[in-house]
Amino acid sequence: MFLSKPCFLSESDSESSHGSNSESNSESNSESNSESNSESNSESSSKSSPTSITFAAAKLDIITLLLGFFGFSVALYALMEHIQAKAGGAGNLQCDVNEVVSCSNVLTSEYGEFLGIPLGAFGMAFWGSVIGLALLPKIVEVSKRYQANWRLFAASVGVLVAGLLAYTSYFILHSVCLICSTTQITCLVFFAFSLFQFLKHKKEPSYANPNAFSKLIALGLALGVPPLVAGLIAPGILIDIMKSKKAETTTNAKATNEQTKKAEPFGSSQTPFAMDLIAVNKSNYVGNGEDYRKGNDNAKVVMQVFTDPQCPACRMASQSIEAALQTVGTDKVLYVARLYPLDSSCNPNAGPLHPRACALTTATRCAGQQGKFWEMLHWAYDSQTLSEEERAAAYSDGGIRKHAQSVGVNIQQFQQCIDSKVEIAKIKADIDLGNKLGLRGTPFIIINGRQFDGNHGNPEILASALRSELSKN
Fold this sequence. Notes:
Layout: E1 2-7, H1 22-31, H2 33-47, E2 51-56, H3 62-88, H4 103-107, E3 113-114, E4 117-118, H5 119-139, H6 144-172, H7 178-201, H8 212-263, E5 293-295, E6 301-307, H9 312-328, E7 333-339, H10 357-368, H11 373-382, H12 388-395, H13 397-406, H14 411-420, H15 424-436, E8 444-447, E9 450-452, H16 459-472
Parallel strand pairs: 6-7
Antiparallel strand pairs: 1-2, 3-4, 5-7, 6-8, 8-9
């Protein structure tokens, strides 16, 4: 819509006085009509020539309004995440993906606040002012050029600050804050839109009601100051409340853990693994091979142990398990051994911690084909206590063959099994299974589908765990 606002010059002085006689005036006017009109038009033209300003009136800026509401919402979310990070520590936010993509790293850094106020509050103040700018034409009459000028000014400030914060995040803190990046992109979009509108209307006349500037400032203060005040006061209060609730939750969790320990003294995890995932293969002709085991195949309690023949902790756990089984009853528990060598030659998830573990694992399973699995495994455990020179000789290829032959293994079949690498598929299958179950080290013990995280070196605790499971069945 186009409007015309006239700006008139001052009126001419009063016309010359007329005679008092009305008839005389009438006659005089009648007689000299053409001359009077001519003179009057001449005087009027020289004393009161009006000028006009034609401008395009601004309307409610929908795009700026939407960008303002979106930016305000993101800034509010950033403020709440800042408070949560301060209360709960870094690494606890939903947008903390890893060490690099981490909102906590940025929001809780020394650059996360200015003058003691979180940057999220400043963002709310900025976008609140942008919302006020979008609403200005609904309150006071201004031209599109006037609105475009102020919009570009606000957008320029926003994009400059966003650029500074992006540089700080990426090149100083070496972190990516997803919330901050969203705000920075929004500022860039707002700037591009504002620049486009400015170029579109820059040749048009600029007009604003005399009260326009004061109302613009009033809108900015009304929508911008409250977020700053909230950002100054609210974080301290909310952080104290959240820390108080966290402390209360921690206390309750400790009490719950104590009750759990009393109910289940062996400390077994309450979340069971999927039974089909940890199913025991009882045949050497199905899948990748048999799971070697001892005890009752129909027992109600199944204990599976991921072990490494070269692992000292596994040797100690094996001794405790054997003692616990004797206490509880070997016919009441099925004890399954799964081999998880901590040796990178066959386990890519392990380093060279136990450099002969893969060879020992293969030899143990090849001996298992001839019914000598447990003899080879316990020999590998026992050899850990030898001197370094004796242990190196025992774990060598020749030492492994020598012991296999001593326990009654057909050495030709044994060597053929090793050379053919027929057991590698099963070994890697158990390694993959351990990784899926969250194995972080050996021994890794599962009792009836639940991880046992008690003291595996204490036979009494293991026996208590087994009895607890037996009482449930």
